[in-house]
Design goal:
The protein has 62 residues and is an all-alpha fold. It has three helices and no strands.
Length: 62
């Protein structure tokens, strides 16, 4: 498998910039990556975060 050009910290920083409002095309040009790549990273990070967060419990259910 080909090694990644970006570390996990770099990926996280790029996704945070996107979430902060930096235009997608700007991030793509600065980092020489496609929009699809950034969206895949964002999806992966959301999945990891969901695994770390405890599931919400409904107080009405017993």
């Amino acid at each position: 498998m080909k090694p990644s050009r970006f570390t996990n910290e770099q990926k996280t920083k790029i996704v945070q910039q996107l979430n902060a409002g930096t235009p997608l095309l700007t991030l793509c040009c600065e980092n020489k990556i496609s929009a699809s790549t950034i969206y895949i990273w964002r999806k992966f990070q959301r999945q990891q975060q969901a695994e770390l967060d405890p599931p919400a419990t409904d107080p009405m259910r017993r």
